[in-house]
Each structure stands twice: as structure tokens, then as C-alpha cells.
Amino acid sequence: MPSKEEIWQAILASFPEPDDADAYVPALYYSQMADALAALAKVYKEAFADAAYRIRKEGITSAVYGLVEHFRESRKVNVALVREDHPDLYAALVHLDARTVQSILGAGTLFWQCADVEGEEALLDRAVITVKALEDEIGEEYAAPYMVTNRTFDRFEVVQR
User: How far is residue 141's CA from residue 47's CA, in Å, rounded to a whole number?
Assistant: First the structure.
């Protein structure tokens, strides 16, 4: 199997980096190479996944190679067990995550409950109305004056004029 360095050298031999006075030429080269290599990496990842799945499904073995499975672990508290064994800890620590509360009570209800505690004015800099909700309620045309568009940098692209 070729090493990463050998593959890199083969690519450079076949597609040498441009040495051009026009700074756009190397920028275009790097952009196109990055796109092509990303697409190629996806092809190889999918081919590897298919090959590994076949090896595992068919129980294929090799005297030379092995297939190692890596797992990501996550931990979660068994709330019912804590409640049963340590009711005081349960009472002190139990809560619902914000998404669950919002799905039960609704975002609007939560806002007004917080406004009752903090005051509506104190919440205005953190308050939100979704674009979709406003457009669904009053229509896209009428919602437009209430929209603030923020532009953030995404990426560069070299284009021919």
C-alpha cells in the first residue's frame, strides 16, 4: 500500500503546482484540487465501509489482517436508580433539558414565564422570533422589513471573468 507521502508525490507529479505570476492561478489550482480530493476521499470512505461491512457480515478472516471496531462511548445517568437509591440527590439534581421543556410547554410559554421573573425588557436582547414563524404568520412580503441579514464569511472561490 502506498504511504500518504507517496500518494502526495504521485499527485504532484501528475498535477504539479502552478508557478505563475498571477496569484489567481495557484488559488484556482488549490481550490480545484481540494474539491477533487474531498470528493475522492468520500468515494474511498464509502468503498472502505462497504468492504468492512462485507468482511464482518460474511465472517471473512485473514492470517495477515484483522478488522478492529472502534466505538465512541457516552454516559448517561440512570435517573430512576438515583431516585430510588438517593432521593435527596435526585431532588437536588433532577431537571429537564431545555429542548424537552420547550417541547412540553412551548417556546412562547417559556418566554412569558421568564418575562414574569426577569421582566420583558430584560429579555429583549436575548429574545428570538424565527424567520419561518414570522413569515408563516404575516407572509414573506410583510415580514421582509423586520428581517436583519447578517453576512459571515464562508469561503473563497476563484472564478474566471
Answer: 47
Of 66, 41, 46, which Cα lies nearest the Cα of 56?
A: 66
**Residue extents of the structural domains in the chain:** 4-58, 97-146
52/41 Cα distance (integer angstroms): 16
| Cα torsion angle, 67, 68, 72, 77, sign | positive
Residue 48's CB is within 10 A of a number of other CB atoms, namely 10
Over 80: is that where the pLDDT of 156 sits? Answer: no
- Kindly report whether the global pTM for this prediction surpasses the value 0.85: no
- Other Cβ atoms less than 10 A from the Cβ of 101: the count is 15
What is the C-alpha separation between 148 and 94, in angstroms, rounded? 38
Name the burial class of residue 153, with classes exposed (0-12), middle (13-18) and buried (19+) by CB atoms within 10 angstroms of its CB.
exposed
Please report where in the chains the cell 472561490 appears, as a residue.
Answer: 157
Give the integer Cα–Cα distance in Å for 12 and 23: 19
